[in-house]
Protein backbone atom coordinates (compact mmCIF):
# COMPACT_ATOMS: atom_id res chain seq x y z
CA UNK A 1 0.00 0.00 0.00
CA UNK A 2 1.44 3.36 -0.97
CA UNK A 3 1.19 6.53 1.08
CA UNK A 4 0.57 10.05 -0.16
CA UNK A 5 4.34 10.72 -0.18
CA UNK A 6 5.29 7.54 -1.99
CA UNK A 7 5.83 7.52 -5.73
CA UNK A 8 2.99 6.10 -7.76
CA UNK A 9 3.97 3.01 -9.79
CA UNK A 10 4.17 3.67 -13.53
CA UNK A 11 1.14 2.45 -15.47
CA UNK A 12 1.67 -0.90 -17.12
CA UNK A 13 2.37 -1.09 -20.84
CA UNK A 14 -0.78 -1.84 -22.79
CA UNK A 15 -0.83 -5.15 -24.57
CA UNK A 16 -2.20 -5.66 -28.08
CA UNK A 17 -5.95 -6.10 -28.05
CA UNK A 18 -6.39 -4.07 -24.84
CA UNK A 19 -9.11 -1.65 -25.90
CA UNK A 20 -9.85 -0.02 -22.55
CA UNK A 21 -11.45 3.35 -23.27
CA UNK A 22 -8.93 5.92 -21.97
CA UNK A 23 -11.07 8.75 -23.28
CA UNK A 24 -13.98 7.61 -21.07
CA UNK A 25 -11.98 7.93 -17.81
CA UNK A 26 -8.47 9.29 -18.39
CA UNK A 27 -7.94 9.44 -14.60
CA UNK A 28 -8.68 5.74 -14.18
CA UNK A 29 -6.56 4.40 -11.36
CA UNK A 30 -6.00 7.79 -9.70
CA UNK A 31 -7.78 8.03 -6.30
CA UNK A 32 -10.40 10.76 -6.45
CA UNK A 33 -9.45 12.12 -3.03
CA UNK A 34 -5.90 12.79 -4.23
CA UNK A 35 -6.97 15.04 -7.11
CA UNK A 36 -6.60 18.81 -6.61
CA UNK A 37 -9.76 20.11 -4.96
CA UNK A 38 -10.96 22.80 -2.58
CA UNK A 39 -14.04 21.27 -0.91
CA UNK A 40 -14.01 23.80 1.94
CA UNK A 41 -13.89 26.72 -0.51
CA UNK A 42 -16.72 25.17 -2.56
CA UNK A 43 -18.90 24.87 0.56
CA UNK A 44 -18.06 28.41 1.70
CA UNK A 45 -18.78 29.82 -1.76
CA UNK A 46 -22.24 28.25 -1.96
CA UNK A 47 -22.91 29.02 1.71
CA UNK A 48 -22.20 32.73 1.27
CA UNK A 49 -24.59 32.93 -1.67
CA UNK A 50 -27.35 31.05 0.17
CA UNK A 51 -26.90 33.27 3.21
CA UNK A 52 -27.46 36.40 1.18
CA UNK A 53 -23.90 37.62 0.43
CA UNK A 54 -24.73 38.02 -3.25
CA UNK A 55 -23.31 41.46 -4.02
CA UNK A 56 -20.19 39.95 -5.62
CA UNK A 57 -22.07 37.07 -7.25
CA UNK A 58 -21.66 38.45 -10.83
CA UNK A 59 -17.87 38.45 -10.33
CA UNK A 60 -17.92 34.91 -8.94
CA UNK A 61 -20.00 33.66 -11.86
CA UNK A 62 -17.43 35.06 -14.28
CA UNK A 63 -14.71 33.08 -12.46
CA UNK A 64 -16.38 29.74 -11.69
CA UNK A 65 -18.68 27.50 -13.72
CA UNK A 66 -20.55 24.42 -12.46
CA UNK A 67 -17.94 22.25 -14.21
CA UNK A 68 -15.27 23.68 -11.88
CA UNK A 69 -16.79 22.09 -8.77
CA UNK A 70 -15.32 18.84 -7.45
CA UNK A 71 -18.48 18.06 -5.48
CA UNK A 72 -21.25 17.07 -7.89
CA UNK A 73 -24.16 18.25 -5.76
CA UNK A 74 -22.60 21.65 -5.17
CA UNK A 75 -22.07 21.88 -8.92
CA UNK A 76 -25.83 21.36 -9.38
CA UNK A 77 -26.53 24.05 -6.79
CA UNK A 78 -24.15 26.47 -8.56
CA UNK A 79 -25.90 25.77 -11.89
CA UNK A 80 -29.22 26.68 -10.27
CA UNK A 81 -27.65 29.86 -8.85
CA UNK A 82 -26.29 30.81 -12.28
CA UNK A 83 -29.68 30.29 -13.95
CA UNK A 84 -31.53 32.34 -11.33
CA UNK A 85 -29.05 35.18 -11.76
CA UNK A 86 -29.31 35.00 -15.57
CA UNK A 87 -33.11 35.33 -15.30
CA UNK A 88 -32.77 38.34 -13.01
CA UNK A 89 -34.43 36.58 -10.08
CA UNK A 90 -33.38 36.85 -6.40
CA UNK A 91 -30.70 34.39 -5.31
CA UNK A 92 -30.90 33.06 -1.74
CA UNK A 93 -31.48 29.82 0.14
CA UNK A 94 -35.21 29.80 -0.58
CA UNK A 95 -35.06 30.56 -4.31
CA UNK A 96 -32.20 28.11 -4.90
CA UNK A 97 -34.15 25.38 -3.10
CA UNK A 98 -37.23 26.08 -5.22
CA UNK A 99 -35.16 25.99 -8.41
CA UNK A 100 -33.54 22.68 -7.45
CA UNK A 101 -36.94 21.19 -6.63
CA UNK A 102 -38.23 22.32 -10.04
CA UNK A 103 -35.30 20.53 -11.65
CA UNK A 104 -35.91 17.38 -9.62
CA UNK A 105 -32.47 17.67 -7.98
CA UNK A 106 -33.42 18.90 -4.51
CA UNK A 107 -33.34 15.60 -2.61
CA UNK A 108 -29.90 14.48 -3.79
CA UNK A 109 -28.34 17.90 -3.19
CA UNK A 110 -29.95 18.47 0.20
CA UNK A 111 -27.19 16.90 2.32
CA UNK A 112 -24.41 18.89 0.68
CA UNK A 113 -26.46 22.07 0.85
CA UNK A 114 -26.98 21.59 4.59
CA UNK A 115 -23.25 20.95 4.99
CA UNK A 116 -22.43 24.09 3.05
CA UNK A 117 -24.73 26.13 5.31
CA UNK A 118 -22.60 25.00 8.27
CA UNK A 119 -19.49 26.47 6.64
CA UNK A 120 -18.41 29.83 8.11
CA UNK A 121 -19.71 32.77 6.09
CA UNK A 122 -17.40 35.71 5.55
CA UNK A 123 -18.69 37.23 2.33
CA UNK A 124 -15.35 36.60 0.58
CA UNK A 125 -17.12 35.15 -2.45
CA UNK A 126 -14.54 36.19 -5.02
CA UNK A 127 -11.66 34.75 -2.99
CA UNK A 128 -13.44 31.41 -2.65
CA UNK A 129 -14.26 31.42 -6.36
CA UNK A 130 -10.59 31.97 -7.20
CA UNK A 131 -9.57 28.95 -5.11
CA UNK A 132 -12.24 26.73 -6.69
CA UNK A 133 -11.20 27.81 -10.19
CA UNK A 134 -7.51 27.17 -9.46
CA UNK A 135 -8.20 23.62 -8.26
CA UNK A 136 -10.41 22.95 -11.29
CA UNK A 137 -7.63 24.05 -13.62
CA UNK A 138 -5.18 21.71 -11.91
CA UNK A 139 -7.65 18.82 -12.22
CA UNK A 140 -8.01 19.44 -15.93
CA UNK A 141 -4.24 19.51 -16.33
CA UNK A 142 -4.03 16.22 -14.41
CA UNK A 143 -6.61 14.74 -16.77
CA UNK A 144 -4.60 15.86 -19.80
CA UNK A 145 -1.39 14.52 -18.28
CA UNK A 146 -2.96 11.13 -17.50
CA UNK A 147 -4.34 10.87 -21.02
CA UNK A 148 -0.96 11.75 -22.57
CA UNK A 149 0.83 9.27 -20.30
CA UNK A 150 -1.52 6.45 -21.26
CA UNK A 151 -1.13 7.27 -24.95
CA UNK A 152 2.67 7.24 -24.62
CA UNK A 153 2.69 3.91 -22.74
CA UNK A 154 0.80 2.01 -25.41
CA UNK A 155 2.99 -0.54 -27.15
CA UNK A 156 1.99 0.97 -30.52
CA UNK A 157 2.26 4.60 -29.41
CA UNK A 158 2.70 7.19 -32.14
CA UNK A 159 5.06 9.98 -30.96
CA UNK A 160 3.49 12.47 -33.36
CA UNK A 161 -0.01 11.76 -31.98
CA UNK A 162 1.23 12.05 -28.39
CA UNK A 163 2.94 15.37 -29.18
CA UNK A 164 -0.18 16.67 -30.91
CA UNK A 165 -2.30 15.71 -27.89
CA UNK A 166 0.16 17.52 -25.62
CA UNK A 167 0.06 20.69 -27.75
CA UNK A 168 -3.72 20.60 -27.91
CA UNK A 169 -3.90 20.31 -24.11
CA UNK A 170 -1.53 23.24 -23.72
CA UNK A 171 -3.50 25.41 -26.14
CA UNK A 172 -6.81 24.52 -24.49
CA UNK A 173 -5.47 25.44 -21.07
CA UNK A 174 -4.05 28.71 -22.35
CA UNK A 175 -7.36 29.59 -24.01
CA UNK A 176 -9.32 28.87 -20.85
CA UNK A 177 -6.90 30.81 -18.69
CA UNK A 178 -6.88 33.78 -21.05
CA UNK A 179 -10.67 33.89 -21.25
CA UNK A 180 -11.00 33.68 -17.47
CA UNK A 181 -8.42 36.44 -16.98
CA UNK A 182 -10.17 38.67 -19.51
CA UNK A 183 -13.50 38.17 -17.73
CA UNK A 184 -12.04 39.18 -14.37
CA UNK A 185 -10.21 42.28 -15.57
CA UNK A 186 -12.66 43.44 -18.23
CA UNK A 187 -13.51 47.12 -18.13
CA UNK A 188 -17.23 47.59 -18.48
CA UNK A 189 -17.33 51.13 -19.89
CA UNK A 190 -14.96 52.25 -22.65
CA UNK A 191 -14.61 55.64 -24.37
CA UNK A 192 -16.37 56.09 -27.70
CA UNK A 193 -13.07 56.30 -29.59
CA UNK A 194 -12.00 52.87 -28.30
CA UNK A 195 -15.41 51.43 -29.04
CA UNK A 196 -15.27 52.68 -32.65
CA UNK A 197 -11.78 51.24 -33.07
CA UNK A 198 -13.16 47.77 -32.34
CA UNK A 199 -16.03 48.11 -34.84
CA UNK A 200 -15.59 46.87 -38.38
CA UNK A 201 -15.67 49.59 -41.02
CA UNK A 202 -18.31 47.75 -43.01
CA UNK A 203 -20.66 44.81 -42.75
CA UNK A 204 -18.70 41.62 -43.40
CA UNK A 205 -20.43 38.57 -44.81
CA UNK A 206 -19.47 35.02 -43.95
CA UNK A 207 -21.74 33.43 -46.59
CA UNK A 208 -23.41 36.15 -48.67
CA UNK A 209 -26.24 37.00 -48.74
CA UNK A 210 -27.32 34.71 -45.89
CA UNK A 211 -24.79 34.99 -43.04
CA UNK A 212 -23.00 37.95 -41.53
CA UNK A 213 -19.96 37.39 -39.33
CA UNK A 214 -20.50 37.16 -35.59
CA UNK A 215 -24.31 37.19 -35.71
CA UNK A 216 -27.16 35.00 -34.47
CA UNK A 217 -29.19 33.62 -37.38
CA UNK A 218 -32.46 31.74 -36.84
CA UNK A 219 -33.36 29.30 -39.65
CA UNK A 220 -37.02 28.32 -39.32
CA UNK A 221 -39.59 26.36 -41.26
CA UNK A 222 -42.21 23.65 -40.94
CA UNK A 223 -41.10 20.04 -40.41
CA UNK A 224 -39.64 18.31 -43.48
CA UNK A 225 -39.19 21.65 -45.27
CA UNK A 226 -35.46 20.99 -45.97
CA UNK A 227 -34.03 23.17 -43.20
CA UNK A 228 -31.14 20.77 -42.56
CA UNK A 229 -30.47 20.56 -46.31
CA UNK A 230 -30.10 24.34 -46.36
CA UNK A 231 -27.83 24.66 -43.33
CA UNK A 232 -25.69 21.75 -44.63
CA UNK A 233 -25.19 23.81 -47.80
CA UNK A 234 -24.14 26.80 -45.67
CA UNK A 235 -21.75 24.66 -43.61
CA UNK A 236 -19.95 23.16 -46.60
CA UNK A 237 -19.82 26.53 -48.39
CA UNK A 238 -18.08 28.20 -45.44
CA UNK A 239 -15.77 25.20 -44.91
CA UNK A 240 -14.82 25.28 -48.61
CA UNK A 241 -13.10 28.62 -47.97
CA UNK A 242 -10.95 27.02 -45.27
CA UNK A 243 -12.90 28.37 -42.30
CA UNK A 244 -13.64 26.01 -39.41
CA UNK A 245 -17.28 24.99 -39.03
CA UNK A 246 -18.82 23.04 -36.12
CA UNK A 247 -22.11 21.32 -36.99
CA UNK A 248 -24.05 20.18 -33.88
CA UNK A 249 -26.78 17.72 -34.91
CA UNK A 250 -29.06 16.21 -32.25
CA UNK A 251 -31.71 14.64 -34.50
CA UNK A 252 -32.04 11.79 -36.98
CA UNK A 253 -29.56 9.17 -38.15
CA UNK A 254 -25.94 9.68 -39.09
CA UNK A 255 -26.80 8.52 -42.61
CA UNK A 256 -29.43 11.27 -42.89
CA UNK A 257 -26.90 13.98 -42.09
CA UNK A 258 -24.40 12.39 -44.46
CA UNK A 259 -26.93 12.47 -47.30
CA UNK A 260 -27.56 16.18 -46.71
CA UNK A 261 -23.87 17.08 -46.69
CA UNK A 262 -22.45 14.98 -49.54
CA UNK A 263 -24.33 16.70 -52.42
CA UNK A 264 -22.09 19.71 -51.71
CA UNK A 265 -18.83 17.71 -51.48
CA UNK A 266 -17.27 16.46 -54.71
CA UNK A 267 -15.64 12.98 -54.67
CA UNK A 268 -12.04 13.15 -53.51
CA UNK A 269 -12.60 16.60 -52.05
CA UNK A 270 -12.72 16.26 -48.23
CA UNK A 271 -13.89 19.11 -46.06
CA UNK A 272 -11.93 18.44 -42.88
CA UNK A 273 -12.48 21.99 -41.70
CA UNK A 274 -16.10 20.90 -41.11
CA UNK A 275 -16.40 19.14 -37.73
CA UNK A 276 -19.52 17.18 -36.72
CA UNK A 277 -20.87 16.88 -33.16
CA UNK A 278 -23.47 14.16 -33.63
CA UNK A 279 -26.04 13.38 -30.90
CA UNK A 280 -23.71 14.08 -27.99
CA UNK A 281 -26.51 15.39 -25.78
CA UNK A 282 -25.60 19.07 -26.11
CA UNK A 283 -27.87 21.22 -23.92
CA UNK A 284 -27.78 25.01 -24.04
CA UNK A 285 -29.41 25.28 -20.59
CA UNK A 286 -26.56 23.32 -18.98
CA UNK A 287 -23.71 25.75 -18.14
CA UNK A 288 -21.15 22.93 -17.98
CA UNK A 289 -22.22 21.71 -21.41
CA UNK A 290 -22.07 25.24 -22.83
CA UNK A 291 -18.54 25.69 -21.47
CA UNK A 292 -17.50 22.45 -23.14
CA UNK A 293 -19.11 23.51 -26.42
CA UNK A 294 -17.40 26.92 -26.31
CA UNK A 295 -14.03 25.18 -25.91
CA UNK A 296 -14.85 22.86 -28.83
CA UNK A 297 -15.85 25.79 -31.05
CA UNK A 298 -12.65 27.75 -30.44
CA UNK A 299 -11.46 29.14 -33.77
CA UNK A 300 -14.71 28.33 -35.59
CA UNK A 301 -16.24 30.83 -38.01
CA UNK A 302 -19.64 29.11 -38.05
CA UNK A 303 -21.53 27.02 -35.48
CA UNK A 304 -24.76 25.27 -36.51
CA UNK A 305 -27.16 24.02 -33.81
CA UNK A 306 -29.91 21.67 -35.04
CA UNK A 307 -32.67 21.36 -33.89
CA UNK A 308 -33.52 23.87 -31.16
CA UNK A 309 -36.19 21.64 -29.60
CA UNK A 310 -33.59 19.02 -28.60
CA UNK A 311 -30.98 21.48 -27.34
CA UNK A 312 -32.73 22.41 -24.08
CA UNK A 313 -35.14 21.08 -21.47
CA UNK A 314 -37.18 24.25 -20.96
CA UNK A 315 -40.62 25.39 -22.09
CA UNK A 316 -40.27 27.23 -25.41
CA UNK A 317 -43.32 29.35 -24.62
CA UNK A 318 -41.83 30.74 -21.41
CA UNK A 319 -39.52 33.69 -21.99
CA UNK A 320 -37.94 33.21 -18.55
CA UNK A 321 -36.91 29.63 -19.39
CA UNK A 322 -35.62 30.63 -22.84
CA UNK A 323 -33.45 33.39 -21.34
CA UNK A 324 -30.53 31.14 -20.29
CA UNK A 325 -30.77 29.17 -23.55
CA UNK A 326 -30.56 32.28 -25.71
CA UNK A 327 -27.88 33.63 -23.39
CA UNK A 328 -25.82 30.51 -24.15
CA UNK A 329 -26.02 31.33 -27.88
CA UNK A 330 -24.69 34.82 -27.17
CA UNK A 331 -21.95 33.31 -25.01
CA UNK A 332 -20.79 31.16 -27.93
CA UNK A 333 -20.73 34.21 -30.21
CA UNK A 334 -18.93 36.37 -27.64
CA UNK A 335 -16.31 33.78 -26.70
CA UNK A 336 -15.56 32.46 -30.21
CA UNK A 337 -16.53 35.27 -32.58
CA UNK A 338 -18.44 32.71 -34.67
CA UNK A 339 -21.74 33.12 -36.46
CA UNK A 340 -24.33 30.86 -34.79
CA UNK A 341 -27.15 29.34 -36.86
CA UNK A 342 -29.99 27.88 -34.81
CA UNK A 343 -32.52 25.65 -36.60
CA UNK A 344 -36.09 25.86 -35.30
CA UNK A 345 -39.68 25.03 -36.33
CA UNK A 346 -42.60 27.26 -37.21
CA UNK A 347 -46.03 26.90 -35.68
CA UNK A 348 -48.67 24.79 -37.39
CA UNK A 349 -50.54 27.28 -39.49
CA UNK A 350 -50.19 28.89 -42.87
CA UNK A 351 -46.52 27.97 -43.18
CA UNK A 352 -47.22 24.36 -42.18
CA UNK A 353 -48.12 23.77 -45.82
CA UNK A 354 -44.83 24.29 -47.60
CA UNK A 355 -46.58 25.15 -50.85
CA UNK A 356 -48.72 27.96 -49.46
CA UNK A 357 -48.06 31.23 -47.76
CA UNK A 358 -44.90 33.19 -47.34
CA UNK A 359 -44.60 33.13 -43.57
CA UNK A 360 -43.37 35.74 -41.13
CA UNK A 361 -41.31 36.01 -37.98
CA UNK A 362 -44.52 35.64 -35.97
CA UNK A 363 -44.84 32.08 -37.27
CA UNK A 364 -41.81 30.93 -35.24
CA UNK A 365 -42.79 28.45 -32.55
CA UNK A 366 -42.41 29.41 -28.91
CA UNK A 367 -41.75 32.64 -27.05
CA UNK A 368 -41.31 35.89 -28.95
CA UNK A 369 -37.98 36.23 -27.15
CA UNK A 370 -36.51 33.67 -29.56
CA UNK A 371 -37.08 35.85 -32.63
CA UNK A 372 -36.22 39.02 -30.71
CA UNK A 373 -32.77 37.63 -29.84
CA UNK A 374 -31.93 36.73 -33.45
CA UNK A 375 -30.11 39.17 -35.73
CA UNK A 376 -31.69 37.59 -38.80
CA UNK A 377 -34.51 35.13 -39.48
CA UNK A 378 -34.41 32.91 -42.58
CA UNK A 379 -37.60 31.06 -43.49
CA UNK A 380 -37.31 27.76 -45.38
CA UNK A 381 -40.40 26.36 -47.12
CA UNK A 382 -41.17 23.47 -49.42
CA UNK A 383 -42.36 24.06 -52.96
CA UNK A 384 -45.73 22.99 -54.45
CA UNK A 385 -45.94 19.48 -55.87
CA UNK A 386 -46.06 20.89 -59.40
CA UNK A 387 -42.55 22.35 -58.96
CA UNK A 388 -40.92 19.19 -57.62
CA UNK A 389 -38.45 17.27 -59.77
CA UNK A 390 -37.41 13.60 -59.23
CA UNK A 391 -33.85 13.31 -57.95
CA UNK A 392 -33.86 16.85 -56.53
CA UNK A 393 -34.71 18.52 -53.24
CA UNK A 394 -36.32 21.92 -53.80
CA UNK A 395 -37.18 24.59 -51.28
CA UNK A 396 -37.67 28.34 -50.98
CA UNK A 397 -35.79 30.68 -48.64
CA UNK A 398 -36.71 34.20 -47.69
CA UNK A 399 -35.62 36.74 -45.09
CA UNK A 400 -38.70 38.07 -43.22
CA UNK A 401 -36.68 39.73 -40.45
CA UNK A 402 -33.19 41.18 -40.14
CA UNK A 403 -31.57 43.95 -38.15
CA UNK A 404 -28.16 43.99 -39.84
CA UNK A 405 -28.71 44.68 -43.54
CA UNK A 406 -31.29 44.72 -46.29
CA UNK A 407 -33.30 41.46 -46.49
CA UNK A 408 -32.17 39.27 -49.35
CA UNK A 409 -34.61 38.57 -52.16
CA UNK A 410 -36.61 35.32 -51.89
CA UNK A 411 -35.18 32.50 -53.97
CA UNK A 412 -35.70 28.82 -54.72
CA UNK A 413 -32.97 26.19 -54.37
CA UNK A 414 -32.61 22.88 -56.20
CA UNK A 415 -30.20 20.27 -54.81
CA UNK A 416 -29.31 17.21 -56.87
CA UNK A 417 -29.33 14.26 -54.45
CA UNK A 418 -26.03 12.71 -55.51
CA UNK A 419 -22.54 13.24 -54.21
CA UNK A 420 -21.19 16.47 -55.63
CA UNK A 421 -24.55 17.26 -57.25
CA UNK A 422 -24.46 20.73 -55.77
CA UNK A 423 -27.09 23.40 -55.24
CA UNK A 424 -28.46 25.70 -57.93
CA UNK A 425 -30.61 28.78 -57.43
CA UNK A 426 -33.49 28.88 -59.90
CA UNK A 427 -35.90 31.60 -60.98
CA UNK A 428 -38.51 32.32 -58.33
CA UNK A 429 -41.71 33.77 -59.74
CA UNK A 430 -43.20 34.06 -56.24
CA UNK A 431 -40.58 36.62 -55.22
CA UNK A 432 -42.64 39.48 -56.66
CA UNK A 433 -43.83 42.45 -54.63
CA UNK A 434 -46.55 41.48 -52.10
CA UNK A 435 -50.12 42.40 -52.87
CA UNK A 436 -51.48 45.49 -51.11
CA UNK A 437 -54.19 45.19 -48.44
CA UNK A 438 -56.64 47.22 -50.57
CA UNK A 439 -56.30 44.93 -53.58
CA UNK A 440 -56.43 41.85 -51.33
CA UNK A 441 -59.60 43.15 -49.67
CA UNK A 442 -61.20 43.46 -53.10
CA UNK A 443 -60.52 39.80 -53.76
CA UNK A 444 -61.85 38.87 -50.33
CA UNK A 445 -65.08 40.81 -50.90
CA UNK A 446 -65.53 39.24 -54.31
CA UNK A 447 -65.33 35.74 -52.83
CA UNK A 448 -67.55 36.34 -49.77
CA UNK A 449 -71.21 35.28 -49.73
CA UNK A 450 -73.86 37.94 -49.10
CA UNK A 451 -76.38 35.62 -47.43
CA UNK A 452 -76.11 35.90 -43.61
CA UNK A 453 -77.64 32.42 -43.35
CA UNK A 454 -74.74 30.89 -45.32
CA UNK A 455 -71.59 32.58 -44.02
CA UNK A 456 -68.07 31.30 -44.50
CA UNK A 457 -65.12 31.07 -42.11
CA UNK A 458 -61.79 32.84 -42.06
CA UNK A 459 -59.96 29.59 -42.69
CA UNK A 460 -61.98 28.86 -45.81
CA UNK A 461 -61.35 32.40 -47.05
CA UNK A 462 -57.59 31.93 -46.58
CA UNK A 463 -57.84 28.71 -48.57
CA UNK A 464 -59.87 30.40 -51.31
CA UNK A 465 -57.74 33.53 -51.64
CA UNK A 466 -54.29 31.94 -51.21
CA UNK A 467 -51.22 33.90 -50.18
CA UNK A 468 -50.12 34.77 -46.68
CA UNK A 469 -52.60 33.94 -43.97
CA UNK A 470 -51.55 37.01 -42.00
CA UNK A 471 -52.27 39.33 -44.96
CA UNK A 472 -55.66 37.76 -45.69
CA UNK A 473 -56.67 38.13 -42.04
CA UNK A 474 -55.55 41.78 -42.08
CA UNK A 475 -57.70 42.40 -45.15
CA UNK A 476 -60.69 40.74 -43.44
CA UNK A 477 -60.13 42.88 -40.35
CA UNK A 478 -59.99 46.03 -42.48
CA UNK A 479 -63.26 45.03 -44.17
CA UNK A 480 -64.96 44.48 -40.81
CA UNK A 481 -63.81 47.88 -39.54
CA UNK A 482 -65.20 49.57 -42.67
CA UNK A 483 -68.49 47.72 -42.44
CA UNK A 484 -67.95 45.96 -45.76
CA UNK A 485 -67.69 42.57 -44.02
CA UNK A 486 -70.04 41.44 -41.30
CA UNK A 487 -69.92 38.55 -38.84
CA UNK A 488 -72.94 36.28 -38.56
CA UNK A 489 -74.06 35.21 -35.10
CA UNK A 490 -76.20 32.33 -33.97
CA UNK A 491 -75.78 28.69 -34.90
CA UNK A 492 -73.94 29.42 -38.14
CA UNK A 493 -71.15 31.80 -37.33
CA UNK A 494 -68.89 33.24 -39.96
CA UNK A 495 -68.35 36.07 -42.42
CA UNK A 496 -70.53 37.53 -45.16
CA UNK A 497 -70.43 40.64 -47.33
CA UNK A 498 -72.76 43.57 -46.80
CA UNK A 499 -75.24 43.90 -49.67
CA UNK A 500 -74.30 47.48 -50.51
CA UNK A 501 -70.53 47.20 -50.55
CA UNK A 502 -68.16 49.33 -52.55
CA UNK A 503 -65.94 47.06 -54.61
CA UNK A 504 -62.77 48.28 -56.33
CA UNK A 505 -63.16 49.13 -59.99
CA UNK A 506 -61.31 46.41 -61.93
CA UNK A 507 -57.81 47.45 -62.88
CA UNK A 508 -57.51 50.07 -60.09
CA UNK A 509 -56.50 49.96 -56.45
CA UNK A 510 -58.64 52.62 -54.86
CA UNK A 511 -61.68 53.57 -56.96
CA UNK A 512 -64.73 51.83 -55.60
CA UNK A 513 -68.31 51.34 -56.70
CA UNK A 514 -71.51 50.19 -55.00
CA UNK A 515 -72.53 46.69 -55.90
CA UNK A 516 -74.62 43.85 -54.68
CA UNK A 517 -72.49 41.31 -56.52
CA UNK A 518 -68.88 40.32 -56.76
CA UNK A 519 -66.80 41.62 -59.62
CA UNK A 520 -63.77 39.64 -60.60
CA UNK A 521 -60.48 41.36 -59.75
CA UNK A 522 -58.15 41.35 -62.71
CA UNK A 523 -61.00 41.30 -65.25
CA UNK A 524 -62.95 44.09 -66.88
CA UNK A 525 -66.08 42.01 -67.20
CA UNK A 526 -68.83 41.08 -64.78
CA UNK A 527 -69.90 37.65 -63.58
CA UNK A 528 -72.47 35.78 -65.64
CA UNK A 529 -76.04 36.72 -64.75
CA UNK A 530 -75.42 40.45 -64.43
CA UNK A 531 -76.54 43.09 -66.89
CA UNK A 532 -74.69 46.33 -67.55
CA UNK A 533 -76.84 49.38 -66.91
CA UNK A 534 -75.83 52.90 -67.91
CA UNK A 535 -76.20 55.80 -65.45
CA UNK A 536 -76.13 59.54 -65.82
CA UNK A 537 -72.49 59.60 -64.73
CA UNK A 538 -71.55 56.86 -67.16
CA UNK A 539 -70.61 54.42 -64.37
CA UNK A 540 -71.37 50.77 -64.84
CA UNK A 541 -73.28 49.02 -62.07
CA UNK A 542 -74.02 45.28 -62.40
CA UNK A 543 -77.38 43.84 -61.49
CA UNK A 544 -77.42 41.48 -58.50
CA UNK A 545 -76.43 37.85 -59.02
CA UNK A 546 -76.51 34.92 -56.61
CA UNK A 547 -73.65 35.61 -54.22
CA UNK A 548 -73.14 32.27 -52.44
CA UNK A 549 -69.77 30.70 -53.12
CA UNK A 550 -69.92 27.87 -55.70
CA UNK A 551 -69.32 25.01 -53.27
CA UNK A 552 -71.19 22.60 -55.54
CA UNK A 553 -69.17 23.44 -58.64
CA UNK A 554 -66.41 21.17 -59.78
CA UNK A 555 -63.05 22.95 -59.41
CA UNK A 556 -61.92 24.48 -62.67
CA UNK A 557 -65.29 24.06 -64.43
CA UNK A 558 -66.36 27.71 -64.30
CA UNK A 559 -66.48 29.82 -67.44
CA UNK A 560 -63.53 32.18 -68.08
CA UNK A 561 -65.58 34.99 -66.59
CA UNK A 562 -66.99 33.15 -63.58
CA UNK A 563 -65.76 33.66 -60.03
CA UNK A 564 -64.89 29.98 -59.87
CA UNK A 565 -62.41 30.39 -62.71
CA UNK A 566 -60.53 33.11 -60.84
CA UNK A 567 -61.10 31.98 -57.25
CA UNK A 568 -61.11 28.17 -57.20
CA UNK A 569 -62.95 27.16 -54.05
CA UNK A 570 -63.08 23.52 -52.92
CA UNK A 571 -66.00 21.47 -54.19
CA UNK A 572 -66.85 20.60 -50.59
CA UNK A 573 -65.74 22.37 -47.44
CA UNK A 574 -62.64 20.59 -46.06
CA UNK A 575 -63.47 17.93 -43.49
CA UNK A 576 -60.87 19.20 -41.01
CA UNK A 577 -59.67 22.76 -40.71
CA UNK A 578 -57.16 24.38 -38.37
CA UNK A 579 -58.60 26.31 -35.47
CA UNK A 580 -60.00 29.65 -36.57
CA UNK A 581 -57.68 32.58 -35.93
CA UNK A 582 -59.38 35.89 -35.19
CA UNK A 583 -57.51 38.91 -36.47
Describe the structure.
The chain is an alpha/beta fold. It folds into 3 domains: 34-185, DNAb Helicase, Chain A (Orthogonal Bundle); 205-431, 3-Layer(aba) Sandwich (Rossmann fold); 437-566. Helix content is 37%, strand content 14%. The chain has 17 helices and 17 strands. The protein has helices at 39-50, 57-63, 72-86, 93-103, 106-118, 125-152, 159-185, 192-198, 227-240, 254-261, 287-296, 319-336, 368-373, 437-447, 458-465, 469-482, 563-566, and strands at 205-207, 211-212, 216-221, 244-249, 274-278, 300-306, 339-345, 376-382, 392-402, 411-416, 423-426, 485-488, 494-497, 501-504, 512-515, 532-533, 541-542. The strands form 5 sheets. Strands 5-4-6-7-3-8-9-10-11 form a 9-stranded mixed sheet, with helices on both faces. A two-stranded antiparallel sheet has the order 1-2. A two-stranded antiparallel sheet has the order 12-13. Strand 16 and strand 17 (541-542) form a beta hairpin. The longest helix is centred in the first third of the chain and has 28 residues, at 125-152. The chain is globular. It starts with 38 loop residues before the first helix and ends in a 17-residue tail after the last helix. Mean pLDDT is 75; it is low at 1-24, 349-359 and 506-583.
Question: What does this entry show, briefly?
Answer:
The protein has 583 residues and is α/β, with parallel strands linked by helices. The chain has helices spanning 39-50, 57-63, 72-86, 93-103, 106-118, 125-152, 159-185, 192-198, 227-240, 254-261, 287-296, 319-336, 368-373, 437-447, 458-465, 469-482, 563-566; strands at residues 205-207, 211-212, 216-221, 244-249, 274-278, 300-306, 339-345, 376-382, 392-402, 411-416, 423-426, 485-488, 494-497, 501-504, 512-515, 532-533, 541-542.
Amino acid sequence: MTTDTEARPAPAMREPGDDSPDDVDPLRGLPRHKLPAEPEAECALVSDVLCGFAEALPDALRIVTPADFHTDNLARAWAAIADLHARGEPVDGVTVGIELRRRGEYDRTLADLIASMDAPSSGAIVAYAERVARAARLRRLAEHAAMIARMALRHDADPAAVAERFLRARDEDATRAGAASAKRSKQLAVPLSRFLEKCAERIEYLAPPFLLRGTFVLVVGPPKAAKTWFVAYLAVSVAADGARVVFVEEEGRAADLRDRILPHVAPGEPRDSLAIVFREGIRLDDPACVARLVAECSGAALVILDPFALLHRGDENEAAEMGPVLGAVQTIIRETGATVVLVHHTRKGDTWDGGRGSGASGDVRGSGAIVAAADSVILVQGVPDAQRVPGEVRFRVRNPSTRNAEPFAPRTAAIKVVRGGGLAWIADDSASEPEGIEALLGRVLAALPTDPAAPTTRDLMVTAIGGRRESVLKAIKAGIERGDIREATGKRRGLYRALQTELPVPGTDGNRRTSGAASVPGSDRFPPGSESMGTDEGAVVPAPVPASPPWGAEPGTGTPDSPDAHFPLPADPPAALPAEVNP
